[in-house]
Specification:
The protein is of the alpha/beta class and about 300 residues long. It contains 12 helices and 12 strands. About 45% of the residues lie in helices and about 25% in strands. A hairpin with a 2-residue loop joins β1 and β2. The longest helix is centred in the N-terminal third of the chain and has 26 residues.
């Protein structure tokens, strides 16, 4: 397979046109067209559907271009490394749910970094983005959260994407609220107790093959009428700390975080739903030393919180 032909195909996919790719690459259109045909012949697939409106990827073409981008990116990295000399740069990348026990583990893990150059990527997001980051954005690890009722959906999807998965934790959500909230004064909390209050909820749930509206409806464990949807943890803590009318369903929090934000953590007698946090990565990926250090801190943080 000719790497130059691969580069041409990626540019045509990006621009959707032989003529635009020709201008960007400074390569004559006939040469581009011939190169792509030779590439398709080598692979035994049609990469593009050729129409009067432009060049469009076939299903097999989409898969090929996805892998081709990664290959070309790695070649660029290799060339840069050879030009600049071998690097001892530490690299760690992970996408995780918005969970405080995980962020606590990450903070403690950061202390293990040596003085060598490092690139560390830590993203809090939903399962869809976490999976996509591994498949298409060079992230090595991910942690996804799902309700046990959706396990078959996730396992089927992960198997389809050739991703391996390992259980990290299993838990029921707890309630957190301001220590000044009337809820914090109750010894026993039921769903009916929550109705007058404002629920803070993450607004981007995801289950493979299910519409978001259906997942949102299922994720709301109570019958609260007022909700604030939020997409990051910093804002949720500000709301909980400042507004005694708010509460949130979360995985158990570290005690030091509860004290920092003047929060109370309570169980709900009506809540029986089980959740799982699962570590995912490509099946051919070998965990690095940094990966294992993070997982060790993660397990220890889980034990402290749960």
């Amino acid at each position: 397979m000719n790497l130059l032909h691969m580069k041409y195909a990626v540019e045509i996919a990006r621009t959707g046109s032989i003529s635009k790719a020709s201008e960007a690459l400074y390569v004559a259109q006939p040469n581009l067209s011939r190169s792509v045909k030779e590439l398709e012949a080598d692979l035994g697939i049609a990469i593009f559907d050729r129409t009067s409106k432009g060049m469009f990827l076939t299903p097999k073409g989409e898969t090929f271009i996805s892998y081709a981008k990664k290959v070309l990116s790695q070649i660029d990295d290799l060339e840069k490394m050879c030009r600049e000399g071998l690097s001892s740069k530490q690299r760690f990348s992970i996408s995780v749910p918005r969970a405080s026990y995980i962020s606590d583990a990450f903070a403690l893990f950061s202390k293990h970094l040596s003085a060598d150059p490092a690139e560390i990527f830590y993203m809090e997001t939903n399962p869809s983005t976490a999976i996509n980051n591994i498949l298409n954005s060079d992230y090595n690890l991910g942690i996804i959260r799902y309700a046990e009722a959706y396990e078959k959906h996730f396992k089927a999807f992960l198997d389809e994407k050739n991703l391996t998965y390992e259980l990290i934790s299993e838990f029921k959500y707890v309630l957190i609220m301001s220590s000044d909230s009337p809820l914090a004064k109750k010894e026993i909390i039921s769903f009916s107790d929550l109705k007058p209050f404002i629920e803070i909820s993450h607004g981007d749930p995801y289950v493979p093959s299910l519409p978001m509206n259906a997942v949102l409806k299922e994720e709301h464990l109570d019958d609260t009428d007022r909700r604030v949807f939020i997409f990051e943890r910093g804002g949720q803590f500000d709301l909980l700390m400042e507004n005694p009318e708010t509460f949130m369903w979360v995985s158990p929090l570290p005690e030091k975080l509860l004290k920092r934000y003047n929060l109370a953590q309570r169980a709900c007698v009506d809540n029986t739903k089980l959740y799982k946090d699962v570590l995912i990565h490509k099946k051919d990926y070998v965990l690095s030393e940094l990966d294992n250090l993070f997982i060790t801190e993660l397990v220890q943080s889980k034990r402290r919180c749960f």
